[in-house]
Amino acid sequence: MKKNPFEKGSQNYMILEALKAKRQLTPIDDNTKEFDYCMRLSARIYDIRKSGINVKAKEVNTYNKKTNKHKRYAKYYL
User: Fold this and answer.
1) Tens digit of pLDDT for each residue in 11-65?
2) CA of 12: how far to CAs of 2, 9, 60, 74, in Å?
């Protein structure tokens, strides 16, 4: 029997509820206790998209002046 990926309390469920509440999620935001320390947000977004929900992504570029490094990540929203 296949397990329901949107079972209450699962990472997929918590992320989907946050997206439905009009929150925009990034991998940095997602690594918190609220989301059960989800380390792979993109994998959870993939599962949500595979179930037929259209999750949009926006690329965000930042620059750290201290380390002189660029950082690029995705911001997900419905």
Assistant:
1) 889 899 999 999 999 888 777 777 777 888 899 999 999 999 999 999 999 898 8
2) 15, 8, 23, 17
DSSP assignment of 1-67 = -PPPTT-TTSHHHHHHHHHHTT--B-HHHHSSGGGTS-S-HHHHHHHHHHTT---EEEEEEEEETTT
Distance between CA atoms of residues 63 and 53, nearest Å: 32
Asked whether the beta carbons of 24 and 30 are under 8 A apart, the reply is: no
Q: Count CB-CB contacts under 10 A for residue 68.
A: 7
Task: Tell me the Cα Rg of the chain.
Answer: 14
Taken as a whole, the chain contains a residue count of 78
